[in-house]
Amino acid sequence: MSVSARRILHVDMDAFYASVEQRDNPDLQGKPVVVGGGTNRGVVAAASYEARRFGIRSAMPMAEAIRRCDHLVRVKPRMSHYKEASAHIFAIFREFTPLVEGLSLDEAFLDVTASIKLFGSPQNIAASIKQRVLEDTGLTASVGVAENKLVAKIASDLDKPDGLSSVMPDAYREKLDPLPVRVIPGIGRETLKRLAGIRIATLRDLRRADDRDLEPIFGRFTQKMRDRASGIDHRPVVSGREEKSISAEETYDRDLSQQTDMDRELLRLTERTATRLRRAALNAGTVQIKIRRADFTTYTRQRSISPPTNGTDQIYALAKELLTTWLAANPGARIRLLGVAGSKLAPAEQPDLFASDDTRNHSVIDETVDEIREKFGSLSVGRAKTLDR
Predict the structure, then answer these.
(1) pLDDT digits 0-9 by tens, 329-348
(2) Domain residue ranges of the chain, discontinuous segments joined by +
(3) 73 has which bridge partners?
(4) CATH architecture of the domain covering 176-229
(5) Taking the CA of residue 346 as centre, how many other CA atoms within 13 Å lie in the half-sphere pointing to its CB?
(6) Looking at 107, 249, 250, 321, which residue is catalytic?
(7) pLDDT tens digits for range 147-204
(8) How far apart are CA 134 and CA 142, in angstroms?
(9) For the CA atoms of 33, 36, 42, 48, what is the dihedral angle to 10 degrees?
(10) Do 1-175 and 245-386 fold alike per CATH?
(11) Is this model's pTM higher than 0.70 or not?
């Protein structure tokens, strides 16, 4: 089948986290709502469309969001609820096609090429998916229909919220040419400044620009970016994409300045990461820590761990070693954010019956803690070191 014969949908849930909160709490409907940390030092994870009218966007510092809207309603994230809604939505996607490439909890590409004979035109499939999602979850989605992933993603943004846009090759010049170059993935703030310096603002400008102007900016990717501006994208929809890492991180109200506090928070984060690894039946072959200083300078440090593990104590020991080494090179540092991640993931095997007693005991402790938390909540039990003094 030729690439041009494909029919791709990009489904993007509208203000997903905030919409779930407004659905579950009618008192929030019609109000400017943001989901994010309960402190002024966190960031906005999602903003309702009422909040967006004040210029509030995801990833914006919470303090800036509050400055823009003094009657902003803040809601703490409830990831388990969002994951539950996402699983329901993705199950609906898979009723129409097995070729579903999830980009996040609220966004996916669907290749519906082989589904047309059964469900009708791509536009009809898109409309049916939107209706099913609304009926089953009470949430709205915006859908873009195109011959490739790039244009489908662009199309889904043309009519939000609760929109359905189709952009086919015969309409590329009309629909794509006037759009700003920032709609192309990979073009960030600094690149936008450089393009503006040579008077390139739209996809039409980029498509028609001379190589001599573009090569200093894009180098060997010049032709690729020109293709993108022309609506050319040969990437297939890849279903079942494997998770690359599992992590947990926290931004603190007050900078951490004492190593005892840092170690305690590091253990808390390790517990969250290790629990998620075990729930996913995965082991990590690499442990990584993320450190952000008070001046927003960010560092990462990582090291392989052998054999790969999802054990809390093993991951914490290596994470603590990485942090201690970093602190030795950065004496007196004050830490605003800490994170712990496991990467180079592989399926977890059954515990080794011939492992040392110490290793088997750690595994039993982790399993017991997981079972208690599953029944009584994440705060029901924890290691003594994680308790505030």
Answers:
(1) 999 999 999 999 999 888 77
(2) 1-175, 176-229, 245-386
(3) 33
(4) Orthogonal Bundle (1.10)
(5) 10
(6) 107
(7) 999 999 999 999 999 999 999 999 999 999 999 999 998 788 888 999 999 999 999 9
(8) 11
(9) -30
(10) no
(11) no
